[in-house]
Amino acid sequence: MLRLEGIRAGYGQATVLRGVSLVVPDGAVVALLGPNGAGKTTLLRVASGLLHPTAGRILLDGEDVASAPPQQRRRRGLCHVPERGGVFADLTVAENLRLFARPGGEEEAIDRAVAAFPALGQRLQQAAGTLSGGEQQMVALSRVHGEESRVVLLDEVSMGLAPKLVDTIFAFLEDLARTGVSLLVVEQYVAKALGIADYVCLLDRGRTAFVGEPAELDSAGLAARYLAG
User: Fold this and answer.
1) pTM surpassing 0.85?
2) What is the pLDDT of residues 84-118, one digit of tens each?
3) At CA 42, angle to CA 37 and CA 48, rounded to 5?
4) Domain residue spans in the chain?
5) Check whether domain 1-77+149-160+180-229 has CATH 3.30.390.10, yes or no
6) Residue 194 to residues 77, 189, 214: CA-CA distances in angstroms?
7) Which residue blocks in 93-162 are alpha helix, DSSP H?
8) Distance CA 172, CA 147 (A)
9) For residue range 5-64, what is the model confidence (pLDDT) as tens digits?
């Protein structure tokens, strides 16, 4: 569903990604792991069009979208939930959810968000900026229902949340995966990410260090990549 080939990218003179290739199959969950600074967030930004690569190809459902802006990729089914969510703080929860929706599907988007996260049902008229961190993340994750998402990029969606809320978030991701949506998940809770993943890609200093199934990545190898490089 999503294919990145030979991606090189960075910021100014600093190169972050050095020829990374990654495939997210249709209906699969891929965990994108690695230590801080490995290039995980940069790769998601390249995939969604927020950052232009200096080399490489980006294919979405077989179509080259390397020159397409983020909004066109979104209309083609790619949804990016960035680190710390990104809600409009001064708007109400309901207004945020309507903005995420396709034209004509605003109320349906609200209904689906409340079905996924019942706690939002009591917060619809509350300013999103006054919600707890976990509730804001629920609003942000609800954008995947706004349009028909086929590939969802998730960047540290559990960061800073209480363990109980982390369980809620991962239950949501599991349910989403069961609907056939493809997920590319960057996550600090490595064990939880591996628990829902069909495949894992491990980045190390801007290069691919491992690609395979979670069972093939033993704990010693994972620790070595995180702690020793």
Assistant:
1) yes
2) 768 999 999 999 999 888 888 899 999 999 999 99
3) 160
4) 1-77+149-160+180-229, 86-148
5) no
6) 24, 9, 6
7) 93-100, 106-116, 133-141
8) 17
9) 999 999 999 999 999 999 999 999 999 999 889 999 999 999 999 999 999 999 999 999
